[in-house]
Amino acid sequence: MLRTRIVGTGQYLPPRILTNADLEKLTDTTDEWIQQRTGIKQRHVADPGVGSSDLGAEAAKRALANAGISPDQVELIICSTMTSDYLFPSAACLIQDKIGAKRAAAYDLNAACSGFVYAVTMADALIRSGVHKTILVVGADIMTNRLSWEKRDTAVLFGDGAGAAVLQGEEGERGVLSTYLGADGASYDLLYLPAGGSKHVICCENIDNLDLGIVMSGRELFKKAVAAFCDAAENVLRATGMTIDDVDLFVPHQANTRIIFSVAERLGLPREKIFVNIDRTANTVAATIPIALDDAVQQGRLKAGDRVLLVAFGAGLTWGSVMMRW
Ligand code: UT7
Predict the structure, then answer these.
(1) Is residue 253 flagged as an active site residue?
(2) Least CB-packed of 55, 60, 106, 245 within 10 Å?
(3) Has residue 77 got a pLDDT over 90?
(4) pTM
């Protein structure tokens, strides 16, 4: 049976680090509050003039090198991002050029923090149906330049970064076993950026009337996130005939350790099976899961045959899960 397997991962975090202590100087917050309420200790920040495709291309080069695949073998690049360099063209096209993947088609997919899970689901369908053999999935976002530092609720949560995975078809038991996606557009306004899109264009005439910051209802999102994470996890477990005890490593989207541990408690997952790296990266949107997978590989926490559960939730609202055998 042909399955889609991740044959290489890579990540890139911009070198500049902003600690919680640095944030104390920018907004009305404390290191203690941030760590207790979110688990975050620091975040990486891209320099002005750097685009999401710059981070994504570096992560992609590392993933290709780790997979032992040359850029000209890549047939499709899907970049999951909600902060593309430009409104158009896509970050995926810019990445295609930067890594020299001349034969690859390229497009962006915006499912916010669920982007990587959505993109892996698309790639899995294209590989198993025989449309493509080798697909590069990138998650890349730069959020720090969208934050208003005085809005402490969102200022402390996000960081910049990119992760990438090379996916190929392979006969056997390893690879993607099941995927599940969900969305709830009625709740779009729980987390969104009103200005800069087609509805409220930023231009000289209206700049004074626009709210340029991110709008977020944190508490409401928290509750929805826990419910959606559990729903997504239970759906792929059911589809694969597995129970939570069969999961070797749970790699959740990194939005808040309290969300992650509430979900784990509800599902009955012990802490040693949960991968958490939000302390050093904060929430890097579509990049959290591929960065976490790459960290897990580097730390030796993933071995061939391990059953890995990916679960994500984000703006949209969107959510989803992937069960795979590593
Ligand atoms: O990636 C997916 C999308 N994002 C999410 O899923 C985020 C989900 N939500 C959350 O992670 C949490 O709701 C937050 C971390 C955003 C907030 O944590 P919370 O425990 O829900 O705090 P809260 O909003 O209930 O606020 C508690 C208190 C308030 O003060 P009072 O009213 O109790 O006096 C806030 O004003 O904490 C205050 N507060 C802060 N204090 C210091 C809120 N933000 C901060 C801050 N520093 N940054």
Answers:
(1) yes
(2) 245
(3) yes
(4) 0.97
Encode pLDDT of 106-118 as tens digits: 999 999 999 999 9
Q: What is the pLDDT of residue 293?
A: 98
Compute the distance between CA of residue 231 and CA of residue 319 in angstroms, rounded to an integer.
Answer: 9
- Using CB distances shorter than 6 Å, the residues near ligand 1 are 29, 33, 37-38, 113, 152-153, 156, 191, 218-219, 221-222, 225, 255-256, 283, 313-314
pLDDT tens-place string over residues 205-220? 777 776 778 999 999 9
Q: What pLDDT score does 203 carry?
A: 79
Pocket test for ligand 1, best of 18, 38, 151, 153 (most atoms within 8 A of CB): 153
Q: How far apart are CA 311 and CA 222, in angstroms?
A: 15
- DSSP letter at 44 equals E
Q: Are 214 and 158 within 8 A, CB to CB?
A: no
Alpha-carbon torsion, ordered 84, 87, 90, 95, to 10 deg:
-50
For the chain, list the domains and their CATH numbers. 2-174 (3.40.47.10), 177-325 (3.40.47.10)
So what's the pLDDT on residue 260?
98
Ligand 1 geometric centre to CA of 305 (Å): 39
Tokens for 193? 């950026």
Tokens of 169: 């078809």
pLDDT at position 68 is 98
Do 326 and 273 contact (CB within 8 A), yes or no? no
Cα 33 to middle of ligand 1, angstroms: 9
Q: Of 142, 134, 145, which Cα lies nearest the Cα of 169?
A: 134
Residue 204 is a catalytic residue: no
Which of these is catalytic: 113, 235, 256, 277?
Answer: 113
pLDDT score at 201: 84
132 flagged as catalytic: no
DSSP 8-state code for residue 71: G
27 Cα–ligand 1 center, Å: 14
